Each structure stands twice: as C-alpha cells, then as structure tokens.
Amino acid sequence: MERLMIKNILYGGSPGQKVSVCGWVRTKRESKGFAFIALNDGSTQELLQLVVPGASPAFRELPQCNTGAAIRAEGVLKESPGKGQKLEVEVSGIEVFGGADPAAYPLQKKGHTLEFLREIGHLRSRTNTFGAVFRLRNILAAAVHEFFQDRGFVWVHTPIITAGDCEGAGELFTVTGLDFGKLPRNNGGNVDFSQDFFGKRTFLTVSGQLEAEFLAMSLGNVYTFGPTFRAENSNTSRHLSEFWMVEPEMAFADLKDDMSLAEDFLKFLCRRALERGEHELSFLEAQYKRTSLDELRTLSEAPFSRITYTAAVAELEKAKEKFDFPVEWGLDLQSEHERYLTDTVFRGPVIVTDYPKEIKAFYMKLNPDEKTVAAMDVLAPKIGEIIGGSQREERLDVLEARMRQAGVPGEGLQWYLDLRRFGSAPHAGFGLGFERLVQYITGMANIRDVIPCPRAPQTIGF
RNA sequence: UCCCGGGUAGCUCAGCUGGCAGAGCAGGUGGCUGUUAACCACCCUGUCGGGGGUUCGAGUCCCUCCCCGGGAGCCA
C-alpha cells in the first residue's frame, strides 16, 4: 500500500479508507486493552492519532513504539470518538523501522527549553516548535522567489568567494588553499598570498550587492538569495556568522521605488506566511506569545510609516524617555532609539531615510543637500533593522570623491567604477537578512533558532 | 569584545550566616476498555562546569579558566 503523508490524510482522507503512514512517535498512551500513538511525519504541524486495539497483532510491537521511534502503520481511517481530532487510524499492523531507547533519547514527553534544544540540533527539528519554524522558513524562502519572479526580476548567483572587502561590511573569513604547516612568507614576514590558489588573498562574501549592481545594469531588475558570511565577534540573539541574504537591485530606480519595493516585499511575505503557515503560526503564538496573527495581518495591509533621519532625531530629542546613548544629528541611531521609534512612536514598521553621509556606505547616492545620502532602513518592532538599502551613486566624479573620503582603495573596484563610465543610470536596491525576517514572522527570540545549523563565534556543531 | 545573570539527577530548578545533596518532570515496574504532555501506586537517578586555595569541614567563601543566557557594540 502506498504511503500517505499525514497532511494529506488529515485534509484529504475519508472514513473507511485504508491507509499506510510513516513517521516518528511523539507520545504513546497505553491501557490494558488498547493504546494510542501520536504520530508526526514532518508534513504538517498536526499529529495523527493511531489507535491500536489489544486484539491486533500490532499490539505486540508497542514496547518498541516509544517516543522518537520511526514506524510504519497500516489500518483504516475512522472518525474519532475522542476530542482533539476528527480522524484517527484504527491500526491493524505496525512495522518498527528504528526504536528509540526511552532512557537515552533526549527528547522527553515534556517541554524543553530552547537553550537545551540548541545542544541537540540534529534532533530539535522533531519538536513542534522547530518543525513549525523550519516549515515557515521554507514557506518564506519560496515566497521570496515567487515575489520577485512574478515581477520579472532575474535571480542571479553572485560569488561566494571574493577578492576583497570592498564594501567594508565587517570582518571577513579568509579562504585559502595554503598549507598551514608551511605558509609562504614575503620579505615583510607576512603571509605571501600571491602563492595562494587564486594568486591573491580571498574571502567569503559579505554581500553580493556590488556584483548584483553590474547584473542590474544589464538585466534590469535582479535579486540574489544566498549565503553570506561575517567574521565579526558578535554574540547576540540577532547575529550569525553564516546567514542568508536577499538583495534586489533595480536599474532606472530611485529611493522611492526602493522603499515601495521593500514595503510590498515584506507585506507579501507576511501574507504568504499567513496563508500557507497558519497552523505553524498559531502554534507559535499560543506557545510563546511573541508573535500574533493579528499583528501580521495588520502589517500585511497597513502602510509603513516613513520618516527622515533628521525628523527621527527631532522625534527622539523631544521624547520623555531617557536614553543611555546621546541623540544628536550626525550620530547613528542606537538599538534603543530604533526600538523607541518602532514600539512607541509608530507602533509598527517604519522606514527611516536620508541618513548623514558620514555614517553610511560610500556607494550611497549623495543628496542635493550634500550632507545626507539616499539611504533607507526598514525598522521592525522588537528586532530592529530588517532591511537596509539605498539609491546608488551613479555619478563617477561624486563616487570617486566619496571613495577617497571614506578611504576605500580604488584598485580592486575599477570594474565597479566602469558601470559609471559606460551607460551609467540611476539604480537602487536593498539587503534583507533572511533569518531576521524568519525571526520577525515566527517571533523566535534568538536568531540561532530559525536556522537549522547556526554558525556563530565558538558555535559550529552539527 | 564589554557589562550583568547563570552552570547542582536525563530535563527544569531549590539548597539561608560553611555542617549527612533535595523537589517536580522524564525513565523503570505494576494497575486501568477512549487517551490527548493520560491517570493511580511503588522504584531508580549525582565528577554540585574544570583546576587551585581558605577551613576540622566547601554545592555554599576566595582566585582562575571554560561554557550558557540576557543586554551593548558591530550589523543584516
């Protein structure tokens, strides 16, 4: 008999139907004459109840059917007389693929802390919480592609290995083929990377943006969606050393277009999460009370607030709240300031625009006031910056001047400047940290709980 | 990297001014004909994070290192 997924049985099955189902036992409840097994196969948040009558030969298999065991069950689908489920399977046969010693299996029939589950990363996806999070992560990843593909954006694959820290976005991981036992040295005593695999020092990418720019200046609208690496010694609930980033880049677009795209994008993702992950979201809402379906519904409909950096600073200056860090035009907004704007002033996502040029990257377009740049950050309640973007500087002379001021060496970036020499055009884009998005939608407090194998300083199990 | 708070049974934690290491849950055994993290009874569970020191005596006090969490910085 063909194996059915639990999702399809619960939503497409009818009483009287013969079924075969495989999965992992969540709980077993035994009486003298019968037993109940709650089974999960990862296809859905919900569990399938198996009823094993004492007369069934399957009853003899019960001692092996402990929490965690992998089994196949065959039987007849019936309407359940009990509360809590509509359908259940009256089992006639059970095959145990692999048992799970109850004394040794770490996942007990009780609640566990997220911290403990992080220590058993290879098993935590068998829990309700992580099943929900990883299914939602998939829904969102698919929705990223759906959103851009529907708008004619081309998915481009920018390199993982790069030759320079052109953007200055944090510390980089070095990639090398050199033998650490006998590193070649130059006259200065430093490692001689000219003898390395690529003939120069190379790194894991910190952003695909610069490459995405030249692809946008040929294909029109493009986006990247792939892994990104930062060697920063960040120990927070919002940072990973390896994370996934989405970076759209649009030719012939300005900051307004960029903001509209970011807003439409986030709303679309919320809507898809609600449509396709309702059971998962409901579970997480009930379990942790850090996210709410109503909040996501509001977010997917109401317009985002928008404010310039200058106006935001004025708002903070007149705030009654005491801040630990100073508020002054020219200083970057601190976490506490961002939180005040999202949680107190606007009570929702807000887009802050036109930051002082000194605190933003060299490639952002200089505004006519020559003090600010056409940058935008989308700030979300609780987690802060979820999107950072800008219109790019397309004027060669202005860009070169900005690079000199910022101390960015031009040698490795001639190809980037070429885009301003040949057929330059206004263009804009942004970067979205995918895990921050998943965090925001699921309400998980720690970013290490929204990716299967989190990489962070001193953290690389599994 | 900095500032706080932690590390005691498989898990979550209590353990006061230093004096025989505890509870709940999980697990085991038995009972129970419709359970929902089932219920009832009984039973088992320890390198008190590692090392050093003070003391007649350290889970408890001191030093040091490691690990975890929260916050900050950096950022997405």
Short description:
This protein has 462 residues and is of the alpha+beta class.
Structural notes for this entry:
This protein is α+β, with helices and mostly antiparallel strands and 462 residues long. It folds into two domains: 3-109, Nucleic acid-binding proteins (OB fold (Dihydrolipoamide Acetyltransferase, E2P)), CATH 2.40.50.140; 126-170 and 206-449, BirA Bifunctional Protein, domain 2. It is built from twelve helices and 17 strands. β1, α1 (6-12) and β2 (18-30) form a beta-alpha-beta unit.
Please estimate the helix content: 25-40%
| Corresponding CATH superfamily of the largest domain | Bira Bifunctional Protein, Domain 2
The number of distinct β-strands equals 17
Quote the distance from N terminus to C terminus: 35 Å
Per CATH, the architecture of the largest domain is 2-Layer Sandwich
Uncertain regions: pLDDT < 50 for 5+ in a row? none
What's the helix-strand series? EHEEEEEHHEEEEHEEHHHEHHEEEHHEH
CATH fold title of the largest domain: BirA Bifunctional Protein, domain 2
Mean pLDDT: 92
Class computed from helices, strands and strand pairing: alpha+beta
Strand order of the largest sheet: 7-11-12-17-16-15-14-13
**Largest sheet composition:** 8 strands, mixed
Tertiary shape: elongated
Total helices: the number is 12
